[in-house]
Hints:
The structure is a homodimer. Chain A has helices at about 10-20, 20-25, 30, 35-55, 60-65, 80-90, 110-120, 125-140, 145-155, 280-315, 335-370, 375-410, 420-430, 435-450, 455-470, 475-500, 505-535, 545-560, 560-570, 575-580, and strands at about 70, 75, 160-165, 180-185, 190-200, 210-220, 225-230, 230-235, 240-245, 245-250, 260-275. Chain A is α+β, with helices and mostly antiparallel strands. Among the domains of chain A are: about 10-155, Acyl-CoA dehydrogenase/oxidase, N-terminal domain (Butyryl-Coa Dehydrogenase, subunit A, domain 1); about 160-280, Beta Barrel (Butyryl-CoA Dehydrogenase, subunit A, domain 2), CATH 2.40.110; about 440-580, no CATH class. In chain A, the strands form three sheets. Chain A has a five-stranded mixed beta barrel. Chain A has a two-stranded antiparallel ribbon with strand order 1-2. Chain A has a two-stranded antiparallel sheet with strand order 8-9. In chain A, a hairpin with a 2-residue loop joins strand 1 and strand 2. In chain A, helix 1 packs antiparallel against helix 4 and helix 16 packs parallel to helix 19. The interface between A and B is large, with 100 and 99 residues.
Amino acid sequence: MSSYQAPLQDMQFLLQQVFDADSVWQAIPALAETIESDTAAAILAEAAKFNEEVVAPLNRAGDEQGVSFDNGQVTTPAGYAAAYQQYMEGGWIGLCGEPEFGGMGMPKMLGVLVDELGYSASNAFNLYASLTAGAALCIHAHGDEALKQRFLPKLYSGEWAGAMDMTEPQAGSDLRHILTKATPQADGSYRINGSKIFITGGDHDLTENIIHLVLAKIDGSDGISLFAVPKLAVDEAGNSGESNGVTAGAIEHKMGLKASATCVMHYDNAQGYLVGRANRGLVCMFTMMNYERLSIGIQGLGSAQAAYSLAAEYAKERKQGSAPGASAEIAPIIVHGDVRRMLLNIRCLTEAGRAMAVMTGLQLDLAKFAEDPHQKAYATKLAALLTPVTKAFLTDRGLDCTIDAQQVFGGHGYIRETGIEQWVRDTRIAQIYEGTNGIQAIDFLGRKLVADRAETLNQLLAEMTDALTSFSRVPAAYVEHQLAQQRQFSDAIAAIAEQKSTAPDLINAVAVDALNAFGYMLCGYYWLTMSERAQACQAKLPVTLVRSKQKLCDYYFTRLVGRFDMHLAAVTCGADSTMQLEAELF
Amino acid sequence: MSSYQAPLQDMQFLLQQVFDADSVWQAIPALAETIESDTAAAILAEAAKFNEEVVAPLNRAGDEQGVSFDNGQVTTPAGYAAAYQQYMEGGWIGLCGEPEFGGMGMPKMLGVLVDELGYSASNAFNLYASLTAGAALCIHAHGDEALKQRFLPKLYSGEWAGAMDMTEPQAGSDLRHILTKATPQADGSYRINGSKIFITGGDHDLTENIIHLVLAKIDGSDGISLFAVPKLAVDEAGNSGESNGVTAGAIEHKMGLKASATCVMHYDNAQGYLVGRANRGLVCMFTMMNYERLSIGIQGLGSAQAAYSLAAEYAKERKQGSAPGASAEIAPIIVHGDVRRMLLNIRCLTEAGRAMAVMTGLQLDLAKFAEDPHQKAYATKLAALLTPVTKAFLTDRGLDCTIDAQQVFGGHGYIRETGIEQWVRDTRIAQIYEGTNGIQAIDFLGRKLVADRAETLNQLLAEMTDALTSFSRVPAAYVEHQLAQQRQFSDAIAAIAEQKSTAPDLINAVAVDALNAFGYMLCGYYWLTMSERAQACQAKLPVTLVRSKQKLCDYYFTRLVGRFDMHLAAVTCGADSTMQLEAELF
Lengths: 586, 586
């Protein structure tokens, strides 16, 4: 099995032809100097090379060896520490970080693609970096100047890692019930006491220090606050010192992601620093959480892409059976329609999913950098709307795609040494952590659509409609179908908003189907856009790329477009059938 | 986590009220003396007790410990050999076996339910028994009298086990290319030389001997023949003696099913006995294969049921969040519509899937026992039509259901000690082995529908229509919807049959969607039937059962019925979009 090959051509096509990144970047003063297409291409090529050559080869051995825990010390698999050192030296963790604290200030539209390359090489390895970048983002957004000076440079450089410490045994999806306590000290810091579970990267041997962002309740308050709690004490100059009472109590044994340390963490009078305002910790943590949600969506995407590479290669090499209607000669299994069906499903969902990730990255860039306050406000709301979709839709499809890819291998797909089954196990967690996909869907439908009175949604749909009606190179029937789905979706959401007050269970009951309907609707939109743009720009593009986009668009609108209808039908069916069976009859 | 609890009430309801088993059995002379409802109930209760108390407790430890291989010897996990001894003593392996060779002669309609109980307790443990029963079935169907006398009594008793040896590295789905050779001997036996891979239960320490059914080519012939090849030589009196040159070369390390030994097998001049006619081995092996296909479908069903039990119990105990619109009081997560959605999906698919399995068992019984030749011929064809559906639809839904069940557990679902993730890993193989689900679908659409000119299908649909039009207790709108789907399905198959000669790729390209459309159509039919029959027989049934069937039927026709449409749309879209992308563009 050859190693991972990055889909650089598809990525470049998305950035330049589909999202017209150069124009976007030129229009933003903060980015115009930093980035243009050649720089972006060089960064992607470098990230691809590093992930293909250094990270991908560690992935399977890391799964077999796993993380170990002895005498309170977590040890990552062989090769992880050395690779992480190289990763750090490449400056990758600070790619989208703030230049004043040592970050490279690159746009997130590029960052999501680099993140995909990382997850495609190794889910477990990339997570350590993703949490570090997310912790830095949160400290930058909510920390005071002293905290930023103290922590950000070493987070961006990668010398220190970050972790997000929220869950306790009795408080998972519902964080109101956390018991970890923070006691104010005379110097303005706090002493943290308590325990957390399921802390990804809670302890490891990759970095000198780990900065934990910990949710806790200040003595006497039931509000939740956020604290930066280093593993080793940090002096005012930003140097690590002795132990700060933050220890791993155990690591979990999991279905997959075995090279990622999932820790039970204990805080024994650990010194912590308030991030943001007291009792406003959930709001601050959401800055990190939303960053991680997008990143986890990309975990699903990266897994699907990696699994596709393996399966497509196998399907072209493995000979078994003959092509229907042809001679009896044994042929590679890619001649079989059912094998193609699986590969085309993956391809369609992965390429459209990548467009959704880039779209979300673009909105985050506009929310951060745009000078027009209206554009900034809309981009902020649109990023908030797209984040739960990117997280849930891309991870649900990520699992579907890794399962399809495994199926292409037949019996060999179930054997560990083939390597494909690891992608199924590793990506499965992405539907669960950082808020289960059910939680994402309720956030999407309840807060981002209904509570917003569908304003952001309808603005997005209007923009999509404008774009679609300008298309001249894709079949008109597909465009009509897409426009009809967009109208149906808008109508369905309006109907839910109307019933909201009389049917309190409705949003929870139909949210997952609403999110999936929206996700497939976006897939349709992006396939039309990709096919249109590929044809419009064909002079600049390889002929194979243009043909692939056209044919995949055909496949999508022929075979996958009906998935929207299935989910929409479930959205419009009310909550009664879901809620009426008494709990004791389950 | 409490252990597995068998769904005996639902099973009894299916047998007695839905399939009217007593009437069926009374009408068949060979069964009228053997079985009636009280005996069936006692057998199910005993099987439930054994599987709950003896087998289920071994399942998780068996996964952790796995099978080991040292010095050519395969050792099953601690407790397996003792439990298998008890299983054997209970006579379970010969449950549906031939009385003249020591079997109990029970109907398969009951056997499928016992099989489900076994798989729900442990996929890995039950497989050893399933392969033994399948090998006995094949020897009984195709072996000569001497072979039957020699092998069947000890297979039915469980003293010996069976295995099915087909795959070689270069010959998986396409068995034409096997290299294993059989050389005729003067005494009428053969000497077998070669190697096989992926042999489930190829070697183990559970039984004195293992009878391998091996596909091989007789010297000088390219036809494939079937041989019974014992691990230890068997004398004419049926006693095991010394080694017969059948050895395990290695065991595979797999994603799951770790307590099941998947072996590389070597045959070094091993003595084998021809089963059936020379060069007709594939036909003979299909007798075992079809038995195993049904059994593997039930593996998916049993996994879904076991996972449901765990998830439903967790959902009623785990408190997190509050019910929408209610007080802020913390509540068990079953108050949330999205948790209910996952549990109801599993419940609907599992109960309807169980009806499909019993239906298939019924047809096998009629094919075997019916005295009316027309009834026998139809049942034979219908069993052949239903077998690939039961295999593929129940294993695909089995994976969906175990994944949904795992999702109910949130983060805890990804931790090995919770036990739920094992069901996902163990059941994943069921979509692959005994013919991938893609192969099942091509068999279903190509051979069982199109090559049959849809005769069996249309007879089945006519019977279903008759039953549906007699229903008076279920909503007429559901019945109309179901009848419309049945017409659409019949039309779609007719259209495919018409295009067959001009579109050689069509069947392969749309087969999986056709099988799934048919599967969901049957689910709808069985939900209407179960709701109708529960209400019609309510005087004899617990009120909670009647209410559950009605409400689950509502859920099915509200939320899941659209899945048929999605698959049917893909069936009717032709092969072009699937076939047109050049192989090198994948």
